[in-house]
Design brief:
The complex is a heterodimer of chains A (626) and B (81).
Chain A: E1 13-17, E2 22-26, E3 40-41, E4 47-55, H1 58-67, H2 78-88, E5 98-106, E6 111-116, E7 125-129, E8 132-136, H3 139-145, H4 154-163, E9 177-178, E10 183-188, E11 191-196, H5 213-231, E12 238-241, H6 246-259, E13 263-269, H7 277-287, E14 290-296, H8 298-312, H9 321-333, E15 338-340, H10 345-349, H11 353-365, H12 371-374, H13 376-380, H14 392-399, H15 414-420, H16 429-434, H17 440-445, H18 457-474, H19 476-484, E16 489-491, H20 497-504, H21 519-525, H22 531-535, E17 550-551, E18 554-555, H23 557-562, H24 565-571, H25 576-587, H26 594-614
Helix pairs in contact in A: 1-2, 5-6, 5-20, 5-21, 8-9, 8-26, 9-19, 11-18, 18-19, 25-26
Chain B: H1 3-14, H2 38-52, H3 63-66, H4 69-80
The chains are: A alpha+beta (626), B mainly alpha (81).
């Protein structure tokens, strides 16, 4: 099982085996390079653990546990886990500040505990097979010993083709579960218990509701500084990603203040529509850091896409993770194993256009006849200047659908999901028939907290965004997977749970004020960033789309093969004539919209997933995965 | 081929990625079907300009002219005079 995970941990492999439990570990050595080898036990060998990730507050926890009489043999964060478990039992996990997937074996009680960090930065999968419970950081390790699970779950495909992500514990593979973020799985006496220990909540009675912007910004600044300080802990150099936007610039600036020296890395694109190189350079100069940019072409993306899908273990609808995977390779080659990133800020601080869109629709719905309210969309999407939607009468038709359903839990998201579901046009008739009874929306509704309806509008929209895009896509297919494909660990200070808890307890006006996003974060970072970066209009990270897969008007050879009628019929998910029309539209440059581009990338990635894991055929591309 | 048949064929093939023309009636709203989102409308207008040689003015970008096969056909016939 462990051999297929070597890309995550190339620095050594070790195992622990007992009659009832076996643990294995592929190490990426970051803390305590000499004695931090895993699996690791407590003093008497009665508690064993293997884990992926970091416990950032291990220094403080170690001191606390030593005071309570625990003896430590190493300087690693791993050893803190076994002693914290001895001291606090299952609740040890609540003491940890970190990003982790932990397996812990208590030999005395014959109890296995699997634990995943609060927001789901590190992955953890499990499956039952032949009376055994198998678990691993990636699904491919499970499939190595349970090949019967190597079949795609069509229910999961319906969810991914709606939300970009699966919901709850479902994965793209039949019978393989993901341990949801903030959960423990305890296996003992032949029973399994799944327990949630943390979730994103937005208390109706907020402790910080009356805090002024200045006071909240000061509190946030202190907390972010501390989060960065903890996340700089490593016995190897720590770098930072710099996209040129507010979020990563803020983290890099705080890291520079704390660490003194800092190396930064970024991606640039040939295509000016996606490139942010100018802002990256500006920020690097402001910080006085040594900066390296990796130039990425559309062809690079097309060539590396099969390798990406080997790592994501899920269909994706965008190509944006590929440049991040190529960047990780570059960062690793530069001698770095750890980078800080700005991921998570849009969810925590209310940065997405989607939140503004929801706000405008709700505002408009209260006076549906108002021309002025409907016209606000052209302020939100200036690029629509080229489009008929700037006409108010069309605005009403595009953005006004289901306008009156103000109580709908997914009010802000419905129009986006409908665009993504454009891929349903190319499903095979058989798959369509199978999916008749499947409702991704109902699946998601079943996961909502009991008091969800009592939260304010922005909180509800944030929660839905976190449970779909963040947990299921940004942290996995665009986060952990492309980075650890090349043994690079990303660290995400904005998702320190103390930051999340502070900000969730504040008034929504400190996040989205009018149509100004991330007001609180901008205030907190104003002193450490140049004004143009703080004032810059938000630019979402994107990469070129379907054109990456064509060279001189012709599909790349592997694309042609996988989207051929015979390949499509063999896998069975898609309707060959419909895919043919979609390919032709992309090939001739007539696919202008998100819907067609997402459908193309979705079809290709599903076909790749099938080839990699179900058919187990090699993809005819030099860059393809193991 | 009538104008309506031609329009239906284009819309069904280009937007619904199908050849099943029964999927779209002449009076069906294209926005309600999800066909005319922001970029779909751009694709449609580009096609009308190229195929029928009509020039679409900004003030003509109105659902009354573009939101169904019937409305588009009437719009083109009017433009052609």
């Amino acid at each position: 099982m462990i051999a297929v995970l070597r890309h995550r941990g190339p620095d050594g492999e070790h195992e622990y085996t007992s009659p009832l439990c076996a643990l294995a570990h592929a190490r990426l050595s970051i803390i305590d390079l000499e004695t931090g080898t895993q699996p690791m036990a407590n003093e008497d060998g009665s508690v064993w653990t293997t884990f992926n990730g970091e416990i950032f507050n291990y220094v403080e926890l170690r001191t606390e546990l030593q005071r309570l009489g625990h003896r430590f043999r190493t300087r690693s964060d791993t050893e803190v886990i076994v002693h914290a478990y001895e001291e606090y039992g299952e609740r040890f996990v609540e003491r940890l500040n970190g990003q982790f997937a932990i397996a812990l074996w208590d030999t005395r009680r014959e109890r296995l505990v699997l634990a995943r960090d609060r927001v789901g930065i590190r992955p953890l999968f499990y499956a039952r097979s032949g009376g055994r419970l198998l678990f691993a950081s990636e699904i491919k390790a499970i499939l190595a010993v349970a090949p019967q699970s190597a079949a795609l779950d069509v229910h999961a495909l319906a969810q991914i083709f709606t939300f970009w992500a699966t919901v709850g514990s479902r994965t793209a593979f039949q019978g393989v579960n993901s341990l949801p973020p903030g959960h423990l799985l305890v296996v003992e006496n032949g029973t399994e218990r799944l327990e949630r220990y943390w979730d994103w909540t937005f208390p109706a009675r907020r402790t910080g509701a009356n805090l002024s912007l200045e006071a909240a910004a000061e509190a946030l600044r202190c907390l972010l500084t501390d989060a960065v300080r903890l996340q700089l802990r490593a016995d190897v150099p720590v770098g930072a990603y710099l996209s040129g936007g507010l979020d990563s610039s803020g983290i890099a600036a705080l890291a520079r203040q704390t660490a003194g020296e800092l190396r930064t890395f970024s991606i640039t694109f040939d295509d000016a529509e996606y490139d942010e190189g100018r802002f990256q350079q500006q920020m690097a100069e402001h910080l006085g850091v040594r900066h390296a940019a990796l130039r990425c072409t559309a062809r690079d993306i097309g060539d590396a896409f099969p390798e990406l899908i080997w790592h994501t273990e899920s269909p994706v609808l965008r190509t944006a993770p590929v440049p991040l995977m190529l960047l990780a390779r570059h960062v690793h080659a530069a001698g770095f194993k750890v980078v800080l990133t700005g991921e998570g800020a849009d969810e925590v601080f209310g940065g997405y256009d989607l939140f503004k869109e929801g706000k405008i629709r709700r505002f408009w719905a209260r006076q549906p006849g108002s021309e002025g309210r409907a016209a606000l969309f052209s302020r939100l999407y200036p690029y629509l200047g080229r489009s008929p939607v700037t006409s108010r009468s069309f605005s009403r038709l595009f953005f006004g659908q289901r306008l009156e359903e103000l109580d709908h839990p997914f009010y802000a998201h419905l129009t986006r999901w409908r665009t993504t579901q454009g891929i349903f046009r190319v499903l095979s008739p058989e798959l369509r028939a199978q999916l008749q009874a499947v409702s991704p929306e109902e699946d998601l509704k079943a996961q909502l907290p009991a008091d969800f309806a009592a939260w304010d509008d922005l909180a509800r929209d944030q929660y839905v965004e976190v449970k779909t895009l963040l947990e299921g896509y940004l942290l996995s297919s665009q986060g952990d997977r492309p980075a650890l494909a090349h043994a690079v660990e990303s660290r995400l200070p904005y998702l320190d749970h103390r930051v999340v808890e502070l900000v969730n307890g504040l008034s929504p006006r400190l996040k989205l004020r009018g149509l100004r996003e991330k007001v609180l974060l901008k205030a907190a970072l104003a002193d450490v960033l140049p004004e143009p970066i703080v004032r810059r209009t938000k630019q979402p990270y994107r990469a070129p789309y379907s054109r990456c897969f064509f060279d001189d008007g012709q599909p790349l050879p592997y694309v042609k093969e996988l989207l051929s009628a015979s390949s499509l019929r063999r896998s069975g998910y898609f309707h060959p004539p419909a895919v043919e029309r979609l390919v032709e539209k992309c090939q001739t440059g007539r696919a202008l919209g998100e819907g067609d581009n997402m459908a193309f990338v979705g079809v290709l990635s599903t076909q790749l997933l099938h080839e990699h894991f179900v058919a187990r055929r090699a993809i005819p591309v030099a860059a393809a995965g193991a | 081929m009538t104008l309506r048949t031609e329009l239906r064929q284009f819309i069904v093939e280009n937007f619904l990625l199908s050849r099943d023309e029964s999927l779209l009636g002449d009076a069906d709203s294209l926005t309600a079907q999800g066909i005319l989102d922001s970029t779909g409308a751009l694709e449609l207008v580009a096609h009308l300009q190229e195929r029928y040689g009509v020039t679409v003015q900004d003030e003509e970008l109105h659902p009354d002219n573009l939101d169904s096969i019937d409305k588009i056909a009437a719009f083109i016939e009017r433009k052609r005079g």
